[in-house]
Every structure is written in C-alpha cells, then in structure tokens.
Give the backbone structure.
Amino acid sequence: MKKFKFTLLVFMTALISLGFTACSDDDDLKDVPVTGDESKYHFDLFLTVGKHGGMSSKNTTVVNSVDKLTADMRTITIKGEGTELGDYSMESISRGKYYYQIPSSNDRFVKYQIKDNKVTETGACPFKTNTYKVRSYTHSWINDNTLVIMSANGDASQIIWSKLNTDDMSILEEGTLKIPLPKSEIEGEETKKFTTSGILTYNEKAEKLYYFYYGKNGESGRAGKTTTAFYTAVLDPSTLAVESNTRNSLAGEMAGSAYGELMQDCVMYDENGNLYLAALTDTGEMEEGHLLRINKGETDFDATYEGYPDTDGKLLTLQYLGNGKALAYARNDAAGTAIDSYSHYYSIIDLATSKRTRLSYGGKELAYSGGRFSQRSVVFDEKAYFGVNTEADANAIIYIYDTKTGAVEKGAEVAGEFYFDMIRVVEND
C-alpha cells in the first residue's frame, strides 16, 4: 500500500517566520474566482514526508508552487524543490496572494507570503484580551480587508471573536457572543463546553453572519461527547450582536466543525444567496451525510430540502460549480471509515433535484480515494481540479472537470513517495 495521501484546498497553509508588524498592499484582495485570468494565479501544493500532515501532525511539510496542473506537466515532486513549513500549522486562511493564521506559539495573528521558495511574514498582531490556539478557530471575510476570527475560549465556556484589519494587521474589535450553553439532549449528560471551532460564514447577499455550533460534555478528548444537535446563530456583521439562535432539527453536526473550514470547505452559496451546509447524523451504524439549505434571508434550514438523500456515508466537502451544480467529496461507510481508508469519492450534485452522479474518466467511475481530513479539490476558471489517491496507482492523479461541458480529463501526477496533503490557488505578485 503506497504512502501517499492527496488533498486539494481553496484554503491553504504555510510556515511563518518570527513576527514583525508591517503594512501591505491588499487593496486588490479577493476570493479565488470561479473564472479569472490564469496567468495571474498559481497553485501551491503541499506535500508531507513520512505520513499525511494536518491534524496536529509534526511531519515535515514542503510547499511547491506550479503554474498549471495539466497532463503535460512533469511528475510533481518536492525533491530539491519547494519551501519547508517547519513547525507551523498546515491549517490556515488564504486570500489573494497572502496567508493568515494563528501559529503554534499561540500568541498572535500573522500574515505571510510563499514566494521564490521562501516564506516571508509581512504582518503580525499580538493578541489582546481574546486568545486563540493553532488550528482551533473558524473565520469569515466580511469584505476584502476585514476578517473575523471566532472560537471557544480557553475553557470552552463561551464563544469569543476578534475582527481584524488585514491591511495593517490590527485588531479592530473583539468580544464574546451572547449565546448560552445549549441544554443537553442526552439523558444523564450535561453540556459543559461549546464545540471548539464551529463554522462561521458570511452571506454577502443576505448581509448576515451565520455561526453553527453545538454543545459537548467536556469529559475526554476534543471536549468529549456531543450533547446537542447543532444550532444556528445569525449575527449582525457590524456588531456581532446575535439576532437569532435556533436549534436545527434535520442533522446532528456540521461537517468539518473541529477545524472551522481551515482544512475543508463545507459551506457554499448559489447565485441567489442560498446557503448550503454539509452535515451529518451519527446513527451508530453510519455517519449519515446531509446537505442542508438556508434560503436567502431566512434564519433556519428549509425543512423540505435534502440535497444528499439515500446517503452511503459522511459528506465531507462541498464546492459550488455554478448552474445549480456542486462538487462533493464523500465517504462510502461500507468501504471503510478510517482516515486512510480507500472509501472516498467525488460526485456532482444537481441542487434542484438532489441527484448525484459519481465522477468518471474514460467511461469508468474513478476508483475510491484514500484520506479524508483535507480539501481535495479547487474550483478555478470554470474548471474543478480534484485529486484522487487510489490504492492501485503509484502516483496521485489530478483530474480536471469542465464545469460547462461536464467533461473530465486527466491532469498532472504527484510523486507517490510523498503524501500530497493540500493545494490552493494563489494570486501572483
């Protein structure tokens, strides 16, 4: 069995040098576009030595930047190439040409670039009252230079937030969400903590922040057993005042909640501003995947909508492709549920009909892929690049899905002696 696990992300990670505060030219920051001039962007690929990275891994991770991921590329490797990340976390935020994160020193917010095989820190800001831990937070952009960071506090008894100006890396405001610990729904259990990160997202068309969270009993690893179905708090983006706080009745947890979308995309929006969330319910026999929807302007999920019926397992990631279609990465629980199980696959979901079609190449469905705790796809310039790490292939293979025609072509390969953990699309200088 080969030692390689593949992951593609719209969000990415990086190394950070020791910090200093500096202003920068973020005037043209923007999200990675669905369409754009490819000459102005490149792909940063993250490969790990020894075993897959992320999730507190201390293995060596190297970033290699490439201009394209088409089949005419040589096999991508990190031998003698790339930038080593050192002791810093893979889990990070990216926007435009910069990366943002809380490093393992747990003392500040940082901003950096990866360029010319170097990691250069361009700004930093020490914590004030609210403090955060590496990997354990969620985030959302309100505009091109305003970033909200949110997580449970030190003892997970409250949810704290900080609002940053990413131009000069200053803290604009900080505070605590006015929400109570939810009451336990399990007999004999007590809710003692909030989930560490939760999921925060900004609905630009509705002009509201949505925060998804749940309660835990706090008795063992990762704050213990989940004690409630998850809640939706709708927030004023200017003040972060709580406008509504509603328990959902359709699923147990949000997908990716432990890492707050630092590793996995589990929220997306369509052209109308409807919000879609990947979720799950643990039945004891299977982690049932759900695709839920909050219609624009609403505060709770549409009880008549299920975008992932007849589930065969956990729905892990979601990305909107346009024209009412979504790219999903999911698991067939019957084929294995361990992190490295070859049980994961890609499909296209028609959001109007909830029909899903497993992706194929050359007339055959793509084989199951290994690895789950990463983002294995990125949408850019009317194409979806998605990586498959099968048990049979020596290298991981990147396939390219045309969002207009539905055609799939084979793209670049990545050397199988490394674990390919992540990719992001980054704006050139």
